[in-house]
Amino acid sequence: MTKLYLIRHGETTWNVERRMQGHLDSPLSTLGEQQASWLSNALKNVHFDVLYASSSGRTLQTANIVKGSRELAIHTSDEWKEMNLGAWEGRISAEIADLDPDNFHAFWNAPDLYRPTKSESYADLQARVIPAIVKLLEEHAGKTIGLISHTVTLKIIMAFFERRALADLWNPPYFHPTCLSLVEMIDNEPHIRLHGDTSHFQEEAFGF
Description:
It is built from 7 helices and 6 strands; from the N terminus they run E-H-H-E-H-E-H-H-H-E-H-E-E. It is an alpha/beta fold. It has a 6-stranded mixed sheet with strand order 3-2-4-1-5-6, with helices on both faces. It is globular, with a radius of gyration of 16 Å. 37% of the residues are buried. InterPro entries: His_Pase_superF_clade-1, His_PPase_superfam, PG/BPGM_mutase_AS, PGM_Phosphatase.
C-alpha cells in the first residue's frame, strides 16, 4: 500500500489581504505558522519515507515546520506550484472581479469555462500536475509520501482520484490552510481516507 499525504500550505500574509498569489509568493502569517505547527504535532507519529513540496517559499516554509525533527530532505519542484494566474497575481480579489468580471466568475464558478489569455487554465494545470502525481506514485510505490502544495493544485489532484468533473472542482470540501488529505493506493486503486481535514486545528483558525 502506498500512502499519499497531501497538505496545503499555511495561511500567508497575502491570504489575509485577499491577494491572489499563483506563482508569486508571500510568507506565512503568524497564524499560518501556528497552523503548520498544529499539523506537525498531529503527524508526529507518521513515518514519512519521502517529502515533496512546491518550490514556492510559502510551501517550503510550511514543509519545514511540518517535517519537524525528521532527518529528511524536502524535494522541491515547479511541477507542484500553484496555477499560474498571470496578471492577477498580487492583486486583491475584489479588484480582479471589477477588472475581469467574466473570467473571475468562471474561475470560481465554472472552472471548465475559465479561459485566461496569458496564464494557465485548469486544463493546463491538469496537464502539468496529473502526470507528475502518477510518476510520483510509481517511483515510491509502497512508501509513505508527503506532498506540500497549493489549493488549486491539490484540488486538481484530489479530483483526479475522485474522478470528479472539472466543472465540479470547487464543490466541497473547502481547502483551508494546512488542510490534510490522505489517499491510500491499494492495488492501483485510490482510497480517500481524509479530504481537506482540519481536525488538527486547536481553535477556530481557518484563514483564507
